[in-house]
Design goal:
Strand content: 5-15%
Shape: globular
Number of helices: 9
Helix content: 25-40%
Radius of gyration: 19 Å
Number of domains: 2
Number of strands: 4
């Protein structure tokens, strides 16, 4: 039998975790509007992401369209997938979308996410070079994905290079983060942290999966306006 998730992988969306809704914690179900008194046709949650550079390559091949080309491309991929090999199923794309979704929490359930000093999830194989791209609710009966069982690479890290590489001295070895120091440094004119995180880049785990410079810069520069607005609100 062919892999029903293969069309997503072909577009660089190479991480998938299929979860039965009945097994999800109550708070996650509630955040998705799935409560005991609200009947739903859905049976499964499908978490979709990517690791490495394949997604960026597929996006570049497809071309840039719309105000948010990444979400637009992901939405197209999911729609084509659900209307192709999974045609006839009832489904809903909840992320990307306006509904708040606890992506890192879902990542923990999938075994993808382990906390790091630089506040980006890490995996023992991929390092921090992965991202969440879509969450789908569907009435499918796909095989449930076993939870990824690799331990956090941070647990065995001695003298974490991410801590010493941070030019803002914003990270503590025990996991503390001085968020204000991080943000202030990023927003300085000419800061080397505007289009990348030097602490994240210093982590040796998953180096083979590291994003391209252009891929990294795109996402970090996209976040700067929101960070600047947040800082200004805090100071007002």
């Amino acid at each position: 039998m062919s892999d029903p998730l293969a069309p997503l992988t072909e577009q660089g969306l190479n991480l998938h975790a299929v979860m039965d809704l009945a097994t999800l914690p109550t708070d996650i179900r509630a955040s998705l509007g799935l409560t005991a008194d609200a009947p739903t046709p859905y049976r499964q949650l499908i978490l979709i992401g990517h690791q490495g550079r394949a997604f960026w390559t597929a996006l570049q091949r497809r071309g840039w369209h719309g105000s948010d080309p990444v979400d637009a491309f992901v939405t197209e991929c999911v729609r084509d997938w659900m209307n192709g090999p999974l045609a006839g199923h009832v489904w809903e794309l909840v992320f990307p979308g306006s509904r708040p979704v606890g992506l890192q929490r879902l990542g923990e359930l999938a075994g993808w996410h382990h906390a790091s000093p630089f506040r980006v999830g890490v995996d023992a194989e991929w390092g921090s070079w992965f991202a969440y791209r879509a969450v789908v609710l569907a009435d499918t009966a796909l095989p449930v994905t076993p939870r990824r069982s690799l331990a956090s690479p941070c647990l065995s890290c001695i003298d974490p290079p991410c801590v010493t590489a941070c030019p803002a001295a914003a990270l503590d070895p025990d996991g503390g983060l001085r968020l204000g120091a991080c943000i202030d440094h990023r927003l300085q004119p000419g800061s080397a942290c505007q289009d990348r995180c030097l602490a994240r880049n210093a982590c040796p785990v998953g180096a083979a999966h590291r994003y391209t410079d252009a891929q990294t810069a795109y996402h970090y520069l996209q976040s700067l306006p929101a960070i600047r607005r947040w800082r200004d609100q805090q100071r007002s």
